[in-house]
Design a protein that fits this description.
411 residues; alpha/beta; Rossmann fold; seven-stranded mixed beta sheet; five-stranded parallel beta sheet; 38% helix; 17% strand; disordered N terminus
């Protein structure tokens, strides 16, 4: 990307404006004076670079919510003010993400939503804190995002420790229910804050529950050839294989396992980059079959979640967690704006801190932030069954029954 294209110019701002504003035949807002009442919100994700797929999906989810809110009359307590999206690209790099926050601050945003990846979030939340900008974090599971005392930071989804604790709890139930066939584990993880943090936590926690970790393998991000790592897995023959990587690497690794006919008792992901992805299931159904994952997911019992799935698919897009997480984050912000009654950063931070928002599409309770972490957030365990993704734990949200150990996969 050129330096020029990275500037948050006035044209960039106009291009990022939320749908619902009147547009003239020349492509510019027809009633420019209405922009003074708009609420500028930074939508910051990695839409170029190695994380571009997830970043683009995240952006789409946020834009869909903004379109709906504006079409429904905007923020009522502020006279129907519309949300104006200022789109920013972290380019899959923490330093660029932080630089984009500076540009968004200069543009006068009331809040920022994003930025998907943990490494980027560590930089963007710190940068936003310097300016008192409320920063709603969509995913970014590394717990340091919310343990540094940044009062401007609010993570909507569950953090790494809670997700790992839930994943291990569900794994033990699945393994015990099948007669404890799995004892040995291999972990394959990408090298950034997310993958490394996951590996460290698993190495600490799994042995406490009777699992033996045979080997932990770190790989670069990006990596395009997993044949050697697959051969190492084949040689060690672990009962459980736990990948921790982003979408592209996850899929390539899973395909390498399938091609070499490596079938452990389970591929059990925790926040797996591809495991809970309809794109993966559709494009590589054999490699995806029976893969389990403890991850962010929508509540299959909620009508609104299914309506959003249909809307997403009508755009020829896959309904990934990036979409519904960011969709919910925008509605969380809209709820805070309604209660704040003004686009003042301090007022928005106060409103978020006292949030009880529950109009989301997630399997969560009401939003309750404690030190910036949403205590109502809950991950679930899914499995790819019959070319679909089913919730298998907790049973209160289940839409399918676990198949374990994993049977032989063909093709």
């Amino acid at each position: 990307m050129t330096k020029k294209s990275n500037r948050l110019s006035r044209r960039h701002v106009l291009a990022g404006a939320a749908a619902g504003a009147a547009v003239s035949s020349f492509g510019f807002p027809a009633v420019l004076r209405a922009q003074a009442a708009s609420i500028k919100v930074g939508i910051l994700h990695p839409v170029t670079g190695p994380l571009s797929y997830s970043g683009t999906q995240s952006r789409v989810g946020a834009q869909m919510a903004i379109e709906e809110i504006n079409a429904a009359g905007g923020i009522k307590s502020m006279g129907g003010a519309k949300i104006e999206a200022l789109l920013a690209d972290a380019q899959s790099r923490p330093d660029v993400g932080a630089a984009e926050v500076e540009k968004l601050n200069e543009a006068g945003v009331a809040a920022i939503i994003g930025p998907y990846a943990s490494g980027i979030a560590l930089a963007t939340t710190q940068a936003a804190a310097r300016h008192g900008i409320p920063h709603i974090v969509d995913v970014a599971v590394v717990d340091q995002v919310v343990t540094r005392g940044l009062t401007n930071t609010f993570r909507f989804g569950p953090g790494l420790k809670k997700t790992v604790d839930t994943a291990i709890e569900n794994l033990i139930k699945i393994n015990d229910g099948a007669g404890k066939p799995a004892r040995t584990v291999m972990i394959v993880h990408e090298e950034s804050a997310f993958g490394s943090g996951m590996a460290t936590t698993l190495n600490s926690e799994l042995p406490k529950h009777g699992f033996e970790i045979l080997e932990t393998i770190k790989h670069a991000n990006p990596t395009r050839d997993f044949s050697n790592i697959a051969l190492r897995v084949q040689a060690r023959k672990p009962d459980l294989l736990i990948p921790a990587n982003y979408y592209n690497e996850y899929v390539l690794f899973a395909r390498a396992l399938q091609q070499q006919r490596i079938v452990p008792k389970a591929i059990y992901s925790i926040l797996g980059g591809g495991a809970s992805s309809y794109k993966f299931v559709k494009e590589f159904p054999q490699a995806a079959s029976y893969v389990m994952d403890c991850n962010h997911w929508f509540d299959p019992r909620k009508a609104a979640a299914l309506v959003l799935k249909e809307k997403t698919e009508k755009r020829d897009l896959f309904y990934t967690y990036e979409v519904f997480m960011n969709y919910s984050c925008v509605y969380l912000l809209a709820d805070a704006l309604e209660r704040a009654g003004r686009a003042d950063r301090a007022a928005i931070i106060a409103a978020l801190a006292s949030s009880t928002f529950d109009k989301h599409v997630m399997p969560y309770g009401p939003t309750r932030f404690v030190n910036g972490q949403n205590e109502g957030a809950q991950p679930v365990t899914t499995q790819v069954l019959d070319k679909d993704i089913k919730v298998i734990y907790p049973l209160a949200f289940a839409s399918g029954n676990a198949v374990y150990p994993m049977p032989e996969r063909r093709g």
